[in-house]
Amino acid sequence: MIPMLDKIWFPILITFWIATISSLLVLCSGVIIAYVFARHDFRGKGLAELFVTLPLVLPPTVIGYLLVVLVGKNGFLGQLIFKVLGTGIMFTWQAAVIAAYTVSLPLMVRTAKAAIEAVDKELEHAAYILGRSELETALLITLPLAKKGILAGLVLSFARAVGEFGATLMLAGNIPGKTNTMSISIYSAFQAGNNELAQVLVLILVILSLLSISLTGKFIDREKFEV
Amino acid sequence: MGARVELKKCYHEAEGSEKKGKRNVFSLDVNFEMKNELVVLFGPSGSGKTTLLKCISGITQPDDGNISVDDRIYFDSGRKINLPIQKRNLGFVFQTYTLFPHMNVRKNIECGLKGWEKGNKEKRVREMLDLLHIEELETRYPSQLSGGQKQRVALARALAPKPELLLLDEPFSALDRVIRIELAEKIKHLQKKIGIPLLFITHSLDEAFLLADKILILYRGEIQQFGTPEEIFYNPKNIHVAEFVGISNIFSDAWVEEQDEGYDAGPKCTVLKSGGMRITVKPLNLKEGDKVSWGIHPENITLLLPGSGSEDQDENIYPAYVHSIIIKGPKKRIVLKLTKHEKSLTAELPAQFADALNLNTGDLCLVKMDVSKVVAF
After folding, report:
1. Side-chain half-sphere of B246: how many Cα atoms within 13 Å?
2. How far does A112 lie from chain B, in Å, by closest CA?
3. Is some CB atom of chain B closer than 8 A to the CB atom of A45?
């Protein structure tokens, strides 16, 4: 029973660790990207939006492959990381974070962008006229009013990170005690005929997914401020 | 002290335009100066009123012109000066109030007091709450306020940072009549008390005359007339202004028949020929034979019964048949068919006067148009 528990607990912990770190990164960068997309026009904006959204439609194995090319030993980022850290990050939990971040970022950007666009621009103008800078206005007015959309994006991103499989497998592999996330453990337990373990992990993931969907529903079905 | 605005060209993004970056050309050609007074911007939708306020506030950038307030240059295309919105120090009350829905009244007012010392900030908020009599709303959220209350909070928020110019974009359009008049009087009073220039957009004529020290009439991006309410009402410069101030009886077929230099101490006047009528008006600086339009406000027409003896003595009295009578609240609107002109004339008189004349459709009566009330342009 003890080894069995270990086989359950480690995947849960590492999955949540990876999803949490990835979601925090997604939150910080995604909101900024969403704000810029929603409120600024610049040359190449269409292309940038396409680039950020691409992981939403690309097969996870393709994303995984591209990431390997980028952060692998011979990749541009990979070499940079090696120079700085003195070690590669392939087949580590950090690699799994990169995979999770890449696939969940578009969910945050799209949801947050829609929420920011829904904020009345005149409110921002009013704040500017009251002497507030763009950054202050974003922090005081725009983002608080888009809060529910941003939270919904966060829940979606977290759920996507928890369920990430393809890109993670290619980038971080399936190393027991190191990178075996829940999704990957389910797959390998099933392959090895360990149905009992697979079923427990499936049950936990289903419950967590249900929870996150109901949370998202709560955020998206937001109350409307009367202005 | 005061504001000076001179704009020659202004492009702005069309409202609701789907394609971003596609700019609609809107030419705004205005040039006016105002003192510390209340100027009402009046004109139909699409005449450039809101665009003008947006240019002054810095939300929209004009292409050509200059704007300055109290000798501070906000915008000067020649010298490439464009003061950022944040530095312009003006108050703006939007049509939709734009109160921040996630902040209570106090926080809304405080928003403009960036960098104020805490004690002063509290004092200023208190002053504003007192000034607009909204002390009891301090902790409420915008969704818990009525339209009139929101408007007061929006005003308090705009005034809190001590702006040097106040802009109000149709602030009363969503309010009912009673609150409108009450707030209009409040604003007029406030402007006198604070003594800053105030630009106020409306398309309600009542509001314009109730509030204005001066009225600026805009039409298709151009100033038609800028003057006191009296000037605008009694001396409209052109047909647009005449129509805006409610002069619905306009005759564009007239020409100057005679320039009467007056006798002894008698008044000078100009006589116009319009259809079969000779209309005497205040002296016009025109030559005989010049084409001219004239008109009269429906409320300035007097109706007389035939045989009352005044037919022959007074100027501008002509017979007409009653075509229809419409009850318009406390007034009656009477459409008259002139016998000496093909156009009909509309008169509006208090119901009690109309009833005293006991007029019915088809009756003959006399239309009297007082020389001082007839406008010509």
Report:
1. 15
2. 18
3. no
